[in-house]
Write a structure and sequence with these properties.
By secondary structure, the protein is an alpha+beta fold. It has helices at residues 30-38, 92-101, 154-157, 195-203, 211-225, 246-255, 273-279, 308-326; strands at residues 4-8, 20-27, 45-48, 54-55, 60-67, 72-77, 81-87, 126-127, 130-131, 136-143, 149-153, 174-184, 233-234, 243-245, 262-263, 268-270, 286-287, 290-292, 300-302, 335-336. The structure holds uridine-diphosphate-2(N-acetylglucosaminyl) butyric acid.
């Protein structure tokens, strides 16, 4: 385990922001991770997973710990399902492809989401009608105070829309080191209701899709709407979709009849932030070397060389404008560092 000094974090965050870490270490084993936290050196530590859900706005004056714990194993398998344990440092999409090669069902709708397996429970990643919590069985996390491993089951994780205990009470207190998924080995439950998926399958004349077909459809849809972080720096949805009350929604409809929405409960409605941002005139707007993506207004992009502070300022301008026009507050989904 080698501790490096003054390392650029540009290759380690999907926004491609060029800030420096005072110290940097890649950790491949649980023993090394525990050793780092047992040591008195470097009291300031910063954990870096896939770097896909953060906007870095300044140099990190700490020891940056790049979690690179690799490996996955089948714990048990029956005729109907399989339990798979995957270590935190595995790339999410590569893991999804591996499950599909084995014909294990459940993660196909979550194809091509950037980031690592270990960070997936933190914000309960979701796309096309499926959330991580649907196949999540448990995760092991290192308690940074006791340096013991604790297991969190689905209930303990308190999953919600882009939210979990790891963004609330447990924030900064644990490091997720592995996740166990329960996937299907037969009679896969397919989720094709999401509009774009069914129309894509129809276009391909597929009436009885396999989980692999669904994954392919999701990949095509995502590639058409979302920029590839390897080409254009971004962090996926920058904002969460806001949830408003039925009363607020009725008022909104008076002025904007066509507003898309999903019912969350009898009292609440979710509005796509992408629509609000587009209506506010920001879709496809560029400000020098950063801006709002042309195909999906929820995504802020770094065309190369932008600073985190510039992108943060743009996000604030968007929030202010959306508030002024719609009287709705949109909250950042990415972590601002
Ligand atoms: N819309 C617009 N303009 C836009 C973007 C969207 O009018 O620029 C409208 C669309 O026409 C549609 C609605 O908003 O009526 C929903 O759009 P979309 O299906 O693209 O989904 P989203 O709500 O914008 C969410 C997730 C995405 C996920 C998709 C698909 C959040 C914050 N985002 O986006 O997640 O891929 O659904 O399930 O919940 C991510 O978290 O990084 C991410 C990309």
């Amino acid at each position: 385990m080698q501790i490096l000094k003054n390392i650029s974090l540009k290759p380690y965050n999907t926004f491609g922001i060029d800030v420096n870490a005072k110290k940097f270490v890649s950790v491949n084993t649980l023993e090394d991770l525990i050793a780092i936290f047992s040591s008195e050196n470097d009291p300031q530590k910063f954990i870096l997973g896939g770097g896909s859900n953060m906007l870095l706005t300044k140099d990190i004056d700490a020891l940056v710990i790049h979690l690179d714990l690799k490996g996955k194993e089948i714990i048990s398998k029956t005729e109907d399902d399989v339990f798979i344990k995957c270590n935190a440092g595995e790339n999410w999409h590569e893991f999804v492809l591996w499950t599909l090669e084995h014909d294990f069902g459940g993660l196909e709708n979550l194809s091509l989401i950037p980031g690592n397996v270990g960070t997936s429970p933190i914000q309960n990643i979701g796309a096309y009608g499926v959330e991580l919590k649907d196949t999540f069985q448990s995760c092991d996390a290192l308690n940074l105070k006791t340096l013991e491993i604790e297991t969190f089951d689905k209930n303990t994780c308190q999953f919600d829309y882009r939210n979990s205990i790891f963004k609330q009470q447990a924030k900064g207190k644990y490091i997720i080191v592995s996740v166990v998924f329960k996937l299907s080995t037969a009679n896969h439950k397919l989720h094709t209701n999401y509009g774009a998926i069914s129309s894509q399958l129809k276009e391909w004349n597929i009436d009885e899709p396999t989980i692999q077909d669904i994954s392919k459809a999701v990949i095509v849809i995502r590639e058409s709407k979302l920029p590839n972080p390897k080409e254009i720096g971004n962090s996926g949805s920058f904002f969460k979709n806001p949830v408003i009350s039925i009363e607020e929604f009725s008022k909104l409809q008076l002025n904007f009849k066509e507003v898309p929405h999903y019912n969350v409960s009898e009292k609440e409605v979710k509005i796509p932030a992408g629509w609000l941002i587009e209506k506010a005139g920001f879709k496809g707007k560029t400000f020098g070397n950063y801006g709002v993506h042309k195909n999906q207004a929820l995504v802020l992009v770094n065309y190369g060389g932008a600073t985190g502070t510039e992108i943060l300022a743009l996000s604030k301008l968007i929030q202010k404008t959306v508030h002024r026009i719609f009287n709705i507050d949109i909250e950042a989904e990415v972590n601002i560092v």
